[in-house]
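Schema walk-through. Below, the input block comes first and the output block second. Nothing else is stored per chain. Lengths vary across the set, and this one has 359 residues.
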Amino acid sequence: MTATISVPLSAATRRSLNSSVNLRHLFSTSHSTFVTLQRNFQFPRSRITVSSMSIDAPVITSSSSFLDRRDTPFLHFAKFHGLGNDFVLVDNRDTIEPKISPEKAVQLCDRNFGVGADGVIFVLPGINGTDYTMRIFNSDGSEPEMCGNGVRCFAKFVSQLENLHGRHSFTVHTGAGLIVPEVLEDGNVRVDMGEPILKASDVPTKLPPNKDHAVVKSELDVDGTIWNVTCVSMGNPHCITFSGKGFENLFVDELKLAEIGPKFEHHEVFPARTNTEFVQVLSESHLKMRVWERGAGATLACGTGACATVVAAVLEGRAGRNCTVDLPGGPLQIEWREEDNHIYMTGSAELVYYGSLPL
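--- output ---
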């Protein structure tokens, strides 16, 4: 079995490697040494490549040439993360069906026996006039409608596949509808996430609406504790809570998320299960959030959850329409614009490495 990983290096790291490693000596080492170590360390100009069971001479490869490889027995991928919410990205532009099954995605997402990720994202051909289609398999094999951090990673991956530079945007068909990501000059990605869905039956939730067909600061009994919840859909369902009976403000760092999160996710009032955001208000423009994601559990960030959180904060009168949302993996800037009712999310998306695995 062969696995290949290509890791991008900074200029400083490359200079350090070049000064500390005698490449001529390294690659003139005897054949038997490589067989014993079963490793081939390559230090080309822009990355370090690790290939098991390989004794080939070093080859300089660009990211585009790596991603263009089409060896049928192998799945070539890129690993990205958005604030620690990490994904395996697959170039799937040559077929309308994902190249791997949900069951295989579960194996890839396993952090001990696979690549390790919160989900696998596929770049498919566009439909209904869009440039691309985005599909996701969660780490449990389920398929969500959309993922905010994932779509930023999707945008950066497409930029590499298409060799796009500078500021650019494109249209993406998702299970949550049309999404328009824009890669900015500084490398961050701003995404027009569309309008929030507030009608209770469309979220969906069985909680009775209490404000213009929406569920806003409604009481929910979760295993004997009464929480105040607001329900929002960003194309996928979210339950947001800032408080509960006996406590007006949450201190999110004190939550035992692994215990309480699944009880929200699988609560009977959420027929499609739900993502749950636990939120601490730091100021009118600054929120702190921890998330339990449907199908993935506790993650370091959730883009759609951050969007839903700002909507809930506005509806409950706790914050304004433009907020920094701190997640365990870092901040997102979220704006719910009054003029078009759209939510705009801005944040980072970073390449971790390129890799390939046998199918």
